[in-house]
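$ fold --in a.seq
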Amino acid sequence: EMDSVCKQKEHLSPTPSQPLKGLRIALDPGHIGGNMAMARIERKYISMKPDSIKHPNEKIELIEGKLTLATALFLKKQLEDSGATVFLTHNKPNVSAFGCTFDEWCKKNLSHAIDSLLKEGSITSKQKTHLLGNATQKDIFSLIFRDIELKERARIINDFHPDITLVIHYN
């Protein structure tokens, strides 16, 4: 086991100007919401009015997916400047680890995903009918997409073979 650890470290070749040279780092900015519509589907936002008397039209909205992506993009540049090779599970607002938006994924993959879940016994026929019929986007996201997308994040991170993985959240 020690030999494999030593072999893994052989690819590192840090220098004073690039102390992270050779290090492979995966960054996973949590959530995908880059706008309030997607943040509402994910249920990952804060919306508040700081002073409803003096400034009734002023509103502060914090979208966790936007914050995590901004943090990951900033961190990516800092790490690359230090010599690391950096991989992001997604690098644009509202784009999932599948490289598309939640809506695009639903149009292309929802029916197949539901059929697969039914076949493996994870959902019932009644749940399939509900999901394909009158389920809300929030239902589809929380009952189907979130877990499938998390598995995709894990898969693409593992394919990158990072030395370190950092999952970014603001809870």
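$ fold --in b.seq
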Amino acid sequence: MTESYLLGIDLSTTTAKALLTDTAGRVLGVGSTRLNLSTPRPLWSEQDPQEWWQGAAASIRQVLEETGVDPAHIAAVGLTGQMHGLVLLGAEGQVLRPAILWNDQRTAAECNQIRERIGKERLIQITGNDALTGFTAPKILWVQNNEPEVFAQARHVLLPKDYIRYRLTGEYAMDKADGSGTILFDLKARQWSSEVLAALGLPAEWFPPTFEGPEFTGRITPEAAALTGLRAGTPVAAGGGDQAAQAVGVGAVQPGVIALTVGTSGVVFAATPQAWVEPQGRLHAFCHAAPGLWHLMGVMLSAAGSLQWYHDTLAPDMSFESLLEEAAAVPAGSEGLQFLPYLSGERTPHPDPLARGAFIGMTLRHTRGHLTRAVLEGVSFGLKDSFELIRAAGLGQIHQVRASGGGTKGALWRQILADVLETELVEVNTSEGGAFGAALLAGVGAGFWPDVQAACDATIQLTRRTPPNPANFDAYRESYAVFKSLYPSLKPAFARMSSR
């Protein structure tokens, strides 16, 4: 019997990645190509979609060459990638301008414009989200307001990974998880909102049909086959935005199982059986890549990035291991020292680009070990904010937290997170969550598993467990209460600092 394989393509901000796995979930190889980031003005963040395509094609060729897998045996391709980016195409599918990315901050005026036209409460009720600078809709309005000659040529709106789909298949299509991140979606209906599009004056025909994550959206064209080495006719599944595909890749596809990612940024992802909305929009509410599910998501902008900044700025000659050894000798609560991790502003629960980082409560007693531990604890408290909002939204009992990302590799930080959250952390057998999740979605579409839950059950195993230490609960409850009081007290000062 001939072995079958699945290909997952992940277009992040830094790399175009291609992962090849078999149907038992064994990762056979990963191809990766670095991508360039352009910041032509302060607060701007752009990339060239043509470079995405070249990088994706190179990574596919790389993984095929390294594994020696016959492309004829690849049953299906799945896609994932950075969310919210705006790709504007003309009538012939040509790129009209560089893509405006998820971390671009130029659209504050357009966010206010959206709230004025729709109303903040109504917008949250329809889309599950407030208008934030990272989302796609305000980017479209920015082009209309600032580059009318480009806007006049626009005929198609895609998200980053869907430009790769277009180059692979010639089809304009999008998955529902990524589509809901545009804030142009009716969250409950899992489809474009005619009310929002009409209020913003955007033509419905610009927006492609949307599909559930495992559904096929097209097949590899002969032209794409010649560039990538894939077999012409190989089906391409809808896939999902990076966080939804990451959740599939770690098995967070049922209510009560939370995905916690501690990378440069931090993400708390909770699958929900209905389209639940946090009334103030402090949590993001999107469709899941798994059909019939939605999710709530909290995002903090500087998670492991806070520790990286601390190391690079204050202790560049020390190893991370040495820093963490010093922090391990400090008691829970860092003897009253607090760290606010808002080095890049914040998203959840404080959607405030003017928020700043801070050490608060230093005394002569505090050492470098205290400072290091305070950073770990401050990030953990920031992530706890999202857990508290998710609980308050009515999710119910949290049965398990599946942790991933560079910040969870060290034993000390895992233990602090478990103690602050008062729950066991578990890790899984794959470290390529997004690309792996995209491959699993393609495998469901190809019929290897009846649904996404079955795919996860068949391929994902729990590995290391970190149980919480109840002896630290009281100290962290008190420290967290102080932490929560700090941002409201300092918010006016942050605004004044940023006005200078």
